[in-house]
Backbone:
């Protein structure tokens, strides 16, 4: 499932028209009909439906939707909310087709004319602006959006809610608040960005007949279940513990043993063959009873916190995870720098390790083996010297720029998780729920990711699969045993067996 900007969507439409001979008005017909077939799952014929139609392609889709639903017997009031001069090209063609089919089309000039219709509507469909939206809503459309949002009607947006840009990094002061959005052809970035995704409500993407083999390849995609089934590492009948990777987890402190303990247990629950936990001895005594299958490496410590370098040959490990519960003291910084330079296998850095990383990013850039960073927006903002709000508003841009600059894989965590490769490719994981908003969830994710990296031939596949397993586990647990309120990180670890058993990889 592709994720596109407004410009990329325009390019797709242009390629479709030029390469396959599809006319713009035929694309509108396809889009409008695809939306109608999708919306029939949401609508019933006893409902009063008001459709708001603008100019441009979104308005053209709206004219097709109105005509198609009327032909199907739905109770529709179609309102054109822009002057006739704004309805051109394919949109004008479909407007005429609607009118020539014998159906009424109301022209809005003052907000008072539509107030009664919106107040009495069961469903309001927004087909006013589409991806051409720039700046803030103005004039009559702003009034229509405000009045629509006040109603108790079920609100549906076509492609994207009016007032919401297709792209990221743009503040929205007012927009149509959809309960459901029928997205056309490809997901728009704004559906996945925190400050704009709230306007979409639930959403679905419909296919409209674009010539997919001719379209420019998108560097952004939503990772889906079919992708996970294809890429999940298979276990052979004659495999042994060495076949599934030898991992090392480094971190822990006397006052934070739970972080590294949860990471270690999640790593083992996710299929790693062998695991060593390196932590201060004062932490190990608390971790060991919880993770009996691991071996342990005591680190030099000072007052329960890691002190200095690691005195072992790290070249024997197939993957290393660093940072969970390590602490932010200066002496921990030496350990992070030491491992960044010494580890010759994939290295995952999370939590306190990320805090210690900022001053040595030049060393990260020099690494020849894969480096994976797993920040939440606050940690990432610290790394790139930006405000958290800046990161939240433009996560695709900043994570891509960072990954390309330093040659790292970035797993930017959040309600929507964005996984970015050093070459700029990006995947989006949509699994999970608010039950994951608990301390320790990130530690569990790091353990799962390390295990997947140890077992997979592709770092990108491993990260995508790991994020999906983490999110799906939360979803399954809150559907059965837990609520989003009481779900704990330790519950996730024990729930992993259900995830792996339920989905036959």
Residues:
């Amino acid at each position: 499932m592709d994720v596109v900007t407004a410009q990329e969507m325009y390019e797709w439409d242009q390629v479709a028209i030029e390469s396959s001979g599809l006319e713009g008005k035929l694309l509108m017909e396809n889009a409008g009909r695809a939306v109608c077939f999708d919306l029939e799952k949401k609508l019933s014929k006893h409902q009063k439906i008001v459709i708001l139609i603008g100019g441009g392609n979104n308005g053209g889709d709206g004219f097709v939707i109105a005509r198609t639903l009327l032909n199907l017997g739905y109770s529709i009031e179609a309102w054109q909310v822009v002057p006739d001069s704004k309805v051109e090209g394919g949109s004008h063609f479909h407007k005429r087709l609607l009118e020539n089919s014998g159906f009424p089309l109301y022209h809005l000039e003052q907000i008072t004319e539509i107030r009664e219709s919106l107040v009495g509507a069961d469903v309001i469909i927004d087909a006013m602006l589409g991806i051409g939206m720039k700046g803030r809503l103005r004039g009559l459309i702003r009034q229509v959006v405000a009045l629509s949002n006040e109603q108790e009607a079920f609100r549906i947006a076509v492609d994207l809610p009016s007032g919401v840009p297709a792209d990221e990094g743009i503040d929205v002061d007012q927009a149509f608040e959809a309960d459901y959005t029928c997205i056309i052809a490809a997901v728009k970035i704004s559906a996945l960005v925190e400050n704009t995704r709230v306007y979409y409500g639930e959403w679905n993407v419909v296919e409209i007949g674009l010539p997919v083999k001719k379209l420019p390849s998108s560097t952004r995609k939503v990772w889906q279940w079919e992708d996970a089934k294809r890429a999940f590492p298979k276990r052979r009948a004659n495999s042994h513990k060495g076949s599934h990777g030898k991992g090392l987890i480094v971190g822990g402190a006397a006052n934070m043993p739970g972080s590294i303990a949860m990471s270690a247990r999640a790593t083992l629950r996710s299929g790693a063959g062998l695991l060593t936990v390196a932590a201060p001895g004062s932490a190990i005594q608390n971790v060991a009873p919880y993770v009996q299958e691991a071996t342990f490496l005591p680190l030099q410590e000072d007052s329960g916190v890691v002190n200095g370098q690691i005195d072992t040959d790290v070249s024997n490990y197939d993957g290393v995870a660093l940072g969970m519960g390590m602490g932010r003291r200066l002496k921990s910084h030496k350990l992070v720098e030491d491992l960044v330079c010494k580890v010759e296998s994939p290295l995952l850095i999370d939590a306190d390790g990320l805090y210690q990383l900022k001053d040595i990013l030049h060393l990260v850039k020099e690494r020849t083996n894969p480096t994976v960073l797993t920040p939440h927006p606050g940690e990432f903002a610290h790394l790139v010297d930006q405000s958290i709000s800046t990161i939240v508003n433009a996560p695709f841009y900043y994570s891509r720029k960072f990954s390309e600059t330093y040659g790292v894989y970035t797993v930017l965590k959040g309600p929507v998780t964005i996984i970015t490769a050093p070459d700029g490719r990006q995947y989006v994981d949509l699994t999970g729920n608010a039950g994951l908003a608990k301390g320790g969830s990130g530690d569990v994710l790091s353990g799962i990711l390390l295990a997947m990296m140890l077992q997979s031939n592709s770092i990108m596949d491993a990260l995508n699969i790991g994020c999906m397993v983490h999110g799906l586990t939360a979803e399954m647990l809150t559907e059965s045993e837990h609520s989003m309120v009481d779900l704990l990180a330790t519950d996730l670890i024990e729930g992993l067996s259900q995830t792996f058993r339920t989905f036959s990889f």
In short: The mean pLDDT is 94. The first strand starts at residue 3 and ends at 4.
